[in-house]
Amino acid sequence: MNDLLRKSAQELLLGYREKSISPVETAQAMLDQIKRCNPVVNAFNLVDEEITLQCARESEQRYQSGNPLGLLDGVPVAIKDVFLTPQWPTIKGSRTIDPKSTLGKEAPCVAALRRNGAVPLGKTTTPEFGWKGVTDNPVDGVTRNPWNPEKTSGGSSGGSAAAVPLGMGPLALGTDAGGSIRIPAGFCGLVGLKPSFGEVPHWPASPFGTLAHAGPMTWTVVDCALMMNVLSEADSRDTNAIPRRNIDYLAEIHGDPADLLRGVHIAFSVTLGYVDVDKEVEAALRAAAEVLASLGAEITEVAPGFDDPIASFGHLFYSGAANALRGIGNKQRALMDPQLVAVSEKAAQLSMLDYLDAVNERMALCERMAAFHNKYDLLLTPTLPITAFKAGREVPEDWPSTRWPSWTPFTYPFNLTGQPAISVPCGFDAAGLPIGLQFVAARFNDAAVLRAAQAYQLAAPLTDKRPDLFFENAWQNTSAKVHS
Q1: Local structure of 74: helix, strand or coil
Q2: How far apart are CA 198 and CA 260, in angstroms?
Q3: Helix 108-115 vs helix 221-231: angle between axes, to the nearest 10 degrees?
């Protein structure tokens, strides 16, 4: 079973074509893994074996007849519970949503996966309305880190992030309005891409507006590129989507590491000029920069030269939270995460000029980063300044701030700018918790971050390492040891 659970989407597809494995046995193995691991980490809030196995049987029949469907036929995918799924309710971790009201509707990402034959595994947990960088909500409880369940998985795509390292699906969908793909990818040790804004169609429009992106979460960069080929398919319902460029992201990352990085100028910043970073995180990032330099990349240690945009981000993001709650009355608010209610009510007091001042700062940051990328192809930073902390908390113990953006300073700036940014595992701390690095490129140069991530993962792979809970004899073990 472990062999099946370890396979990437690419490896599964090859096995299906060669008929050495089947979509049904793959789906069943991952459903069994969910039964074993989900009680510990709470990655899934909905699993429907009947629908999953029916989709897998249909895929198997297509392979038997020689007519596989699209790019992902038979590959299991975990779907964050903010994406509309026609067969399953979408409640976003909230008691205020009528589950029946969401049925029969399909998000663009879900529709694209269906058109390409992917097998849906279920819905993954999220904080209520995806509002924070950790994952817990009043309906489903706390989601935990697969490497150490006493720690947080991060958020808001924490359920998707917890699922992939444990073999509960090779692919997962996430959303990112302030780091919600990259934060849990960094904490849980997988690959997470926030594409350029508009590259992946997203509907209905997020209450967090143009901060919000949809994207892939995977075990390998190759699978991330494959998934992008599917998720970037056209969907007319997203009026913010850019024109389809029909980029073959798999072809873009083909080649050996040196070829992928030849002539690439990377700006390397441990702190962005203003962040306090854990020493183990800094050491891992510096080691990664040395790997990239050894592959032929030109590395310059330099900050991009902007001040921390946390205030403008906070105005725009928490205004989105207020927008999400605008039609919810006091009786229903009493059923919600009280901290979500608190930040939304505070943001509702902002003036129009407060909001527009944040918009002005956002535009200035966009201009600065556009100019920065005239000189540097990529920016390399940590994904996060710390490793995962205690589960069930919004911030680490004894932290100077009470709100989650205070410990995610490397992620939210690039939601403001709409740039592509990817998190890739680059090591572990002394406690065995993952550390991630982040590549950022100019807007619409998604291929550049994927190429760099692929070069690094080829040169310094960590894909052979899995959490203790992955292994059949360790279901009750909550230690954070790393196995190969």
Answers
A1: coil
A2: 25
A3: 100
The secondary structure of residue 88, as a DSSP letter, is B
Q: Per DSSP, what are the bridge partners of residue 63?
A: none
For 77, counting Cβ atoms within 10 Å of its Cβ (0-12 exposed, 13-18 middle, 19+ buried), the class is buried
pLDDT above 70 (res 86): yes
Helix runs in 189-252, H state only: 221-231, 249-252
Measured CA to CA, the distance from residue 52 to residue 120 in angstroms comes to 6
Question: If you ran DSSP here, which 8-state letter would residue 406 be given?
Answer: G
Residue recorded with tokens 């429907």:
48
- Could you tell me the CA-to-CA distances from 52 to 22, 26, 363 in Å, in that order? 14, 11, 44
Alpha-carbon radius of gyration of the chain: 21
- Rounded CA-CA distance 298/316 in Å is 36
In DSSP terms, 174 is beta-bridged to 215
If residue 185 lies in a helix (H) or strand (E), which one and from where to where? helix 182-188
Q: What residues act catalytically? A: 80, 156, 180
Tokens representing residue 127 in the block: 């904080």
- pLDDT one-digit tens code per residue, 242-256: 999 999 999 999 999
- The contacts of residue 315 (CB under 8 Å, 6+ apart) are 347, 350, 354, 355, 357, 358
CA-to-CA distance for 17 and 333, rounded, in angstroms? Answer: 51
CA distances from 370 to 361, 367, 374, 379 (A): 14, 5, 7, 12
pTM of the predicted model, to two decimals?
0.97
> E-assigned strands of 280-411?
298-301, 378-382
Determine the length of the chain: 484
Q: What is the pLDDT of residues 34-50, one digit of tens each?
A: 999 999 999 999 999 99
Residues 6+ apart with CB under 8 A from 445: 196, 373, 420
**Strand ranges, E, within 76-125:** 76-80, 119-124
Question: Token pair for residue 433?
Answer: 């918790």
